[in-house]
From TrEMBL:
Gene3D superfamilies: NADP-dependent oxidoreductase domain. It comes from Lacihabitans soyangensis. Residues 27-259 form the NADP-dependent oxidoreductase domain. The lineage of its organism: Bacteria, Pseudomonadati, Bacteroidota, Cytophagia, Cytophagales. Belongs to the aldo/keto reductase family. SUPFAM superfamilies: NAD(P)-linked oxidoreductase (SSF51430). The active site is at residue 51. Substrate binds at residue 109. One of its GO terms (molecular function) is oxidoreductase activity, acting on the CH-OH group of donors, NAD or NADP as acceptor. This is Aldo/keto reductase.
Length: 272
């Protein structure tokens, strides 16, 4: 198996820094993508109840030759299932669809104002049972983390947020580091919208890599876990081929300065 860097979460659990995101893929396509990813060497798969493909992800993992304990599996509670009892029920449903008796990471998908507290309390309960090896949040910008601190007993292991060179959330990254929360970037490839950025193309040429590989490597060198989505075999392989080069400190700073607060997903601040 190819070497890949990992993060040690605040409870000691080891998580690969690079994983496959499986949003917007369904049925056979989703199953096939996970099969290809596992064959390529990916050991982190990021799904969600909302993606309606937990069954297919479970199929691919179950039928692969890789032992379940070597795969880091994340899923998330759907907005419609938030609240204490509903979350507990939704978690059971996710395990059933995923055909596993535990997930490695269970996340609050969105910080819904009315229910995020009870939802977090339910995640803490689930964590106590051992059926989620770690729990965390998604879309928690600084004010949400501060609020969470007022009622949580467990510090989230992971905060999964939209993050890319074009949305470089440096303060959030520093805050997570201070709190012992591992930052994970979603939509790292900006859904392909920035692949023709001239500066990115120049760096790709310089390092003899693709724009996607430059972005993913930038995440990894920041110590940020990242979960690019692809259901195309060549791009699944391309996105994993980022462990044989390093971006210089100077170029890392140049990429940091690409920031233009560019989002493709709703701003979580709307939930405050
Ligand atoms: N927690 C949350 O609220 C949240 C929100 C959004 C996403 N996520 C997670 O983050 C994952 C990634 O985000 P995302 O799927 O929204 O967007 P993304 O990973 O930034 O971009 C995916 C798009 O880029 C294309 N692509 C993949 N590799 C490429 C490459 N090497 N070169 C050019 N284009 C490439 C894909 O097409 P092909 O498939 O055809 O390759 C797809 O259209 C999701 O799958 C999901 O797991 C979480």
């Amino acid at each position: 198996m190819k070497f890949q860097p990992t993060a040690i979460l605040n409870n000691g659990l080891e998580m690969p820094l690079l994983g496959l995101g499986v949003y917007d893929m369904y049925n056979k396509e989703a199953e096939q993508a996970v099969e290809w990813a596992l064959e390529t060497g990916y050991r982190l798969i990021d799904t969600a109840s909302m993606y309606e493909n937990e069954l297919q992800i479970g199929n691919a993992i179950r039928t692969s030759s890789i032992p379940r304990e070597e795969i880091f599996l994340t899923t998330k509670v759907n907005d419609k299932d938030q609240g204490y009892d509903a979350t507990l029920k939704a978690f059971d449903q996710s395990l059933e669809l995923l055909q596993t008796d535990y997930v490695d990471l269970y996340l609050v998908h969105w910080p819904l104002k009315a229910t995020r507290k009870e939802t977090w309390n339910a995640l803490e309960k689930i964590y106590e049972t051992g059926r989620a090896k770690a729990i965390g949040v998604a879309n928690y910008l600084e004010p949400f983390l501060e609020e969470l601190q007022t009622y949580s007993e467990i510090v989230p292991a992971v905060n999964q947020v939209e993050f890319s060179p074009f949305l470089y959330l440096e303060n959030l990254k520093l805050k997570c580091e201070k709190l012992g929360i591992t930052l994970q970037s979603y939509t790292p490839l900006v859904r392909g919208l920035k692949m023709h950025d001239e500066r990115l193309l120049n760096l790709a040429k310089k390092y003899e890599k693709t724009p996607a590989q430059i972005i993913l490597r930038w995440n990894i060198q920041h110590g940020v876990s990242t979960i690019p989505k692809s259901s195309n075999l060549l791009r699944i392989k391309e996105n994993f081929d980022v462990f044989d080069f390093a971006i210089s400190d100077e170029d890392m700073m140049i990429i940091n300065a690409f920031n233009e607060n560019f989002r493709v997903v709703d701003d979580p601040m709307l939930m405050l």
